[in-house]
Design brief:
Chain lengths: 118, 574
């Protein structure tokens, strides 16, 4: 496996980043493979959910495995698209095109009550 | 395994081989029964229950690919972590880490933790494809093992998606041109738990381990092999420190070359009993007998003689340890240690219950292949317990293996006192070319050993019962006493011989006495004849004298008468 630092370097080169990597932000990573309808749907759905529930508290890294396939093993990617919550711990993962918002919220451990308050 | 056994398994293999390109697995025996290995560039399903050796088969396939055939490989493990896998196969001498470091092998551990995955919307397994593709391209892999892909079913809930993706995966592997092994857990009523045999339809191999009489035997069967002929039976296979070996069952046509050469038995008297001064080379010899009749000694004598000629022998001991055999044979003057030291003799000792019967055969076959002996001894075959048919089938194979390699095989078997020809012996008897039967004759408070040749194919052999003695000079054959009082052995034989000797002495004395009497009688008679003859002569003499006297008297009377007449005439004239 490539080392952690190398992974980051490649990731920086090939991934799309959205938001700010702040210490207490949700650090999310979305793995996709190419510009498939599922990939695009997942990216769109994730953006919407983050805007609605995690305004200003999220950082998304989108990794296209068709460009950096070596990153797939590191996060044990099998199904695509896969969304991984890297921070805050523990590591969480949601697979699919994220069309079911409730399940994404459960998977990312985001309490829907925050919606009501915001 | 010699290629010459292949035609006997299936007909028309050459045509099949021409149609289908195959990838050798490098697993002894498997390549024979699949007539050249797994279908190249296609996936093969390997299924079996837990502990069958699926993972080991996969690893062996890859390691052999790298080390023997120059084909790099990818091992995708869904169950074991690479370090565990490495440790598990290290005992077989596989150094996975070295192969990985050399860039010949990739081990990718796919870990799925159901509890930490949330599903939301549509997904596919493109990630697996990406990983696999990346791994294959990284080392230029030609071989891929997916072990055990069904683990995916426990990781994802959407079975329909999984099945569609698996179908796509196997198609993709074919397009990629890699020879793949996909392992699957044996399921109820079907080959695999999730029925993935539906998608992998080119070649299906089933592994099985069964326990019969508390002995486990591993078996392998090629369930299907599209586009190729293959051996269809269940074949036993062996996993030990040497790796996997499938026993290539020579369903063996009886085509082995025969030899007219005689191999001395190591027992001088026995050589004489066999018309050709020994056993035929590459024949099967059965030595049967009761406990303590010296079955092992006969086989050891043979081995000793063979080793002294510089031949190689393999001794399979199932009841004694090698040291024990060597020590015991020393007591009858057979020194085996020197042959072991010289590398001509090799002992392979194992308890019969260690493996199943067929497993033993697999092991023996491998030992034979490795040591390349001129002769083997299996002591004893009666130690094996199991269904008679199975024992028979196994011995047929062993005998065939030996015959095809020109190995003279000595089998010993223990017979029971009340039924000297028990079921096992009957079943193997037709296999044997020569059968030496050792027996005990118990009489007059002692036990003596006799042997006879129950059969010996292709030679004019002695039909006599012979007594033999085991002494510090080895085995000696003694002529038994066969007479009006039956067959006598041991001291009875010696006593009888003494009695015979006495009787003949007496007869000689009697004859001498009669002779002397005759001589005396003749002398007497002759004496009497002489006397009578003398008497007769005397009478004849007397008679002659009488005749003479009578003549004289007549003459006298005539002259007197003449004188008288003259006187009378004178008177008348006067």
């Amino acid at each position: 496996m490539t080392s952690e630092s190398a992974q980051h370097k490649v990731a920086e080169g090939c991934s799309v980043e959205i938001g700010q990597a702040e210490p207490d932000a949700y650090n999310l990573r979305l793995y996709v493979a190419g510009q498939t309808p599922k990939s695009l749907a997942a990216i769109g759905n994730l953006k919407t959910i983050c805007e609605n529930y995690l305004t200003g508290r999220y950082f998304i890294e989108i990794i296209d495995l068709t460009i950096t396939p070596q990153l797939a093993a590191g996060d044990q990617i099998i199904a695509l698209p896969t969304l991984i919550r890297r921070l805050p711990p523990p590591l969480k993962r949601v697979i699919g095109d994220l069309s079911n918002t409730d399940r994404v919220l459960v998977g990312l451990d985001i309490c829907p009550r925050e919606t009501a308050s915001s | 395994m010699g290629k010459h056994t292949i035609p006997s398994i299936v007909e028309g293999h050459e045509a099949a081989a021409a149609r289908l390109s195959k990838a050798l697995t490098g697993i002894t025996g498997l390549d024979d029964l699949t007539l050249g290995g797994l279908p190249r560039g296609r996936p093969t399903l390997l299924c079996g229950s837990a502990g069958c050796g699926k993972t080991l088969f996969g690893v062996t396939f890859l390691v052999n690919g790298v080390t023997e055939f120059g084909e790099p490989g990818v091992f995708v493990s869904f169950e074991e972590r690479p370090e565990d896998l490495d440790a598990n196969v290290a005992s077989l001498g596989f150094r996975l880490t070295d192969l990985v470091a050399a860039g010949k092998l990739v081990i990718d551990h796919v870990h799925i933790e159901r509890s930490e995955i949330e599903e939301s919307g549509e997904y596919d397994l493109e990630g697996l494809f990406v990983r696999l593709n990346y791994a294959i391209d990284r080392v230029g892999a030609k071989r891929v093992v997916l072990d055990t892909i069904e683990a995916l079913f426990s990781g994802f809930t959407d079975g329909a998606v999984l099945r569609a993706e698996l179908r796509r995966l196997f198609g993709w592997l074919k397009d990629k041109g890699v020879t793949a092994i996909i392992t699957g857990e044996r399921g109820e009523g079907q080959l695999t738990r999730y029925g993935i045999e539906e998608y992998v339809s080119d070649c299906v191999i089933l592994l099985d381990n069964r326990v019969e009489d508390q002995v486990m035997t591993r078996r392998l069967r090629v369930v299907k092999y599209r586009g190729s002929a293959h051996g269809t039976n269940e074949y036993p296979f062996l996993i030990d420190q040497e790796g996997i070996s499938v026993l290539p069952i020579t369903s063996a046509g009886l085509e082995h070359c025969v030899s007219n050469e005689a191999v001395p038995t190591g027992v001088a008297g026995l050589d004489d009993m066999l018309g050709i001064q020994g056993y035929y080379r590459s024949s099967s010899v059965l030595i049967s007998g009761l406990a303590g009749t010296g079955k092992s000694t006969f086989s050891a004598s043979f081995v000793n003689a063979a080793c002294e000629r510089g031949e190689r022998c393999l001794f399979f001991a199932f009841e004694e340890s090698p040291e024990q055999v060597i020590r015991n044979m020393n007591s009858v003057g057979i020194q085996l240690k020197r042959h072991v030291d010289a590398g001509l003799l090799k002992f392979e000792a194992a308890r019969p219950s260690l493996y199943g019967f067929e497993m033993h055969l697999a092991r023996m076959n491998r030992d034979i292949e490795r040591f390349r002996p001129n002769a083997i001894v299996v002591d004893p075959i009666s130690a094996f317990r199991g269904p008679s048919s199975e024992i028979h089938a196994t011995l047929v194979r062993l005998a065939d293996i030996c015959k095809s390699r020109g190995i003279t095989a000595i089998f010993t078997t223990l017979s029971s006192p009340d039924d000297p020809l028990n079921e096992n012996q009957r079943s193997v008897s037709s296999l044997m070319d020569t059968w030496v039967s050792l027996a005990d004759v118990e009489a007059n408070g002692e036990r003596n050993r006799v042997l006879y040749l129950l059969k010996s194919r292709g030679m004019d052999h002695s039909k006599q019962l012979r007594e033999y003695q085991l002494s510090s000079r080895g085995i000696q054959l003694v002529d038994v006493y066969v007479g009006p009082e039956g067959v006598l052995t041991g001291t009875a034989r010696i006593a009888q011989e003494a009695r015979e000797h006495d009787a003949s002495l007496q007869r000689q004395h009697l004859a001498a006495r009669r002779h002397r009497e005759m001589v005396r009688k003749r002398e007497l008679v002759e004496l009497r004849i002489a006397e009578m003859r003398a008497e007769l002569e005397m009478e004849e003499n007397e008679f002659q004298m009488f005749v003479d006297e009578e003549g004289i008297r007549e003459t006298t009377r005539r002259s007197e008468r003449d004188a008288m007449e003259a006187i009378r005439r004178h008177h008348r004239d006067q």
